[in-house]
Amino acid sequence: MTDLVDRPAPMDAPPVDQHVEGEELGIQPARLAGLLAFLAFLLFIGGWQLLLIVGAFVIFIMIHELGHYSLAKWSGMKVTEYFIGFGPRVFAFKRGEVTYGLKAIPAGAYVRIVGMNNLEDVDPIDEPRTYRQAAWHKRMLTIAAGPLSHFVIAIVLAFFVILQAGQPVEGEWEVSQTIPFGAAETVGIVEGDRIVSIGGDETPDFELLSEVVRSNRGAEVDIVIARPNSTGDGDSAYGPNYDEIVFTTTIGEVLTDAGAGFTEIDGVSVDRISGLYPGDMVTAVNGEPVANYDEFLAAARPFEGEQVEVDVVYNRSLHTELITINALETDASVAARGFLGVGQGEVRESQTVAGAATGSVEIVSETTKLLLVEMPKRLATRAGLLGLFGLSSEAEIIPETAEGQPRLTEVRPIVADENRVVSIIGAVQIARTLADSSWVEVVGFLILINISFGILNALPMLPLDGGHMVIATYERIRSFGGKVYHADAAKLLPVTYAVVALLMLIGGIAMVRDIIDPIQIPG
Questions:
Q1: Element (H, E) at 168
Q2: Is the Cβ–Cβ distance between 410 and 338 less than 8 Å?
Q3: What whole-number distance in Å separates Cα of residue 155 and Cα of residue 146?
Q4: 386 φ, ψ (degrees, to nearest 5)
Q5: Rounded CA gap, 186 and 12, in Å?
Q6: In this predicted structure, what is the pLDDT of residue 399?
Q7: By CB neighbour count within 10 A (0-12 exposed, 13-18 middle, 19+ buried), where does 342 fall?
Q8: Which of 13-27, 421-435, 470-484 has the lowest mean pLDDT?
Q9: What share of the chain is helix, strand, coil (3-state, %, to 5)?
Q10: Does residue 136 register a pLDDT over 70?
Q11: For residue 191, which phi and psi values (nearest 5 degrees)?
Q12: By the 8 A CB rule, do 326 and 366 touch?
């Protein structure tokens, strides 16, 4: 009888419920009401973006644990619990020897495999089915299924994006947005346009465009663009699906560090103009319109040592600021640089199912390689290590508006706070910003999260999955001559606690910083 209970049930046999006396099964109404109230509270304070991120995190971790669960069951290990969330049970049911359910704190999921280490007391009858007694390859597959699941999720998400929105074409770009008061908006360039050349210089990539714009500061130039058409009879450098249009305009100017009054004297940073910042576009001084830095210099000189009102463009709108001029940079080529006012967008090409499958694997592979190369490099620097704990290695002041928002003129990529660890609060801030641009950006962010989760979980440190794989491999190496070696988990506990404490510290600092100093993502 015991022997029959211990064996896995035949595939065609219904599971036998093995209820443990005192175990809470079914729905707990009060706890369910509390969970629903908590979710409503999240919706109220964070909007749908917060629910999206929390729900996505839970689903990702649930699939992670499902990987462990599936391979453990396949390997013949005994699994007793698979739950979504932590804390008191909200809902539970039992099938065979496994209890499934939902718990009150939606902070992930977990699976309980019997006999994970030598400290766990196990019924002798169940000992042959413990994790610690399983063959090395089965233990490795069971643990590796967790991190690998995140890469599978990333590939599936990338496949969906490519199938629906197309795959980015390497080396090609289009205008994603234009900045108010910039030359591009003024002349009529719009989202989706592709800039062919400026002043006769071709601009096949965005970096080259930036160089051409900077070098043509204040110059009147012809800008050749290709604009998508619906007729397919166009005549442009990008084929018949684009019409060629030529605009004539003057390249605008924005202040550099020197033009905004930031300079160094004997290694000490000095602010020679209080109230202006790099990237600002000055349009008037004391009510007198100025079109370039030379005109600004002429209009501002009479006010050296005094305060004066200037009209300046930043954060996509015109503002009037009272500035103090202590000294002015006289060389316009140093004080200002060219500014067109366009953002870089991806050009996407439709793909077949096979093409989307291949492309999704390529994207995840390349992103993983990039993270594996860049993360160690960044952490090897002082700025990277300080950023890990929410600190800055430079006394850099990021200008803010009166409302506490970053003061920006240009379209900038999401690289502000590049050394910063982001908590779930920061993730919501990012998702909220990306959701304003496109769903593709949001899904791309979720892809990046999964790749990061996969890499993090594979790190060779307990209690992470990579640590369990290292221990399993170490035990395999130490087991020879028919004698099975088991590492003493008690000796590993101090290291485990230290890693947990470090992760909690980093996570806690990230969460506090994301609250008091929200992540800055220029749009």
A1: strand 167-178
A2: no
A3: 15
A4: -65, -40
A5: 72
A6: 53
A7: buried
A8: 13-27
A9: 45, 25, 35
A10: yes
A11: -60, 135
A12: no
Query: Considering the chain, what percentage of its residues have pLDDT values greater than 90?
Result: 34
Q: Is 347 helix (H, G, I), strand (E, B) or coil?
A: strand
Rounded distance, CA 170 to CA 202, Å?
Answer: 17
- Place 413 in a pLDDT band, splitting at 50, 70 and 90: very low
CB contact burial 210-241 (16+ within 10 A = b; e otherwise): bebbeebbbeebebbbbbeeeeeebebebeee
Tokens of 96: 């065979």
pLDDT of residue 6: 34
CB atoms within 10 A of CB 32: 14
**CB atoms near residue 494 (< 10 Å):** 9
**Are residues 142 and 68 in contact, defined by beta-carbon separation less than 8 angstroms?**
yes
Q: Could you give the maximum distance between any two Cα atoms of the chain, in Å?
A: 101
* Among 11-15, 355-359, 388-392, 456-460, the least confident range: 11-15
| pLDDT above 70 coverage of the chain, percent | 83
Return left, alpha or beta for 14; rule: phi > 0 is left, psi -120 to 50 is alpha, else beta.
beta
Tokens of 508: 């806690």
The helix/strand/coil state of 390 is coil
Average pLDDT over residues 449-475: 92
| Tokens 């619906």 found at | 230
Q: Inform me whether the pLDDT recorded for 420 exceeds 50.
A: yes
d(CA 201, CA 236): 16
Evaluated on CA atoms 365, 367, 372, 374, the torsion sign reads: positive
Residues 424/57, Cβ–Cβ less than 8 Å:
yes
**Most trustworthy range by pLDDT among 80-94, 167-181, 255-269, 501-515:** 80-94
**Sheet with 242-250: strands ordered across:** 201-202, 194-198, 220-228, 242-250
DSSP state at residue 322: E
- 155 close to 445: Cβ distance less than 8 angstroms: no
444 contacts 161 by C-beta, under 8 angstroms: yes
What's the CA gap between 131 and 78, in Å, rounded? 8
Contact between 409 and 259 under an 8 Å Cβ cutoff? The reply is no
CA-CA distance, 13 to 35, in Å (whole number)? 36
Name residues whose C-beta falls within 8 Å of residue 114's C-beta, 6 or more positions apart in sequence.
77, 78, 79, 80, 120, 122, 126, 129, 130, 131
Q: In this structure, are residues 259 and 335 in contact, taking their beta carbons and an 8 Å threshold?
A: yes
Strands (E), 261-394: 262-265, 268-271, 273-274, 281-285, 288-289, 307-314, 317-325, 336-339, 342-349
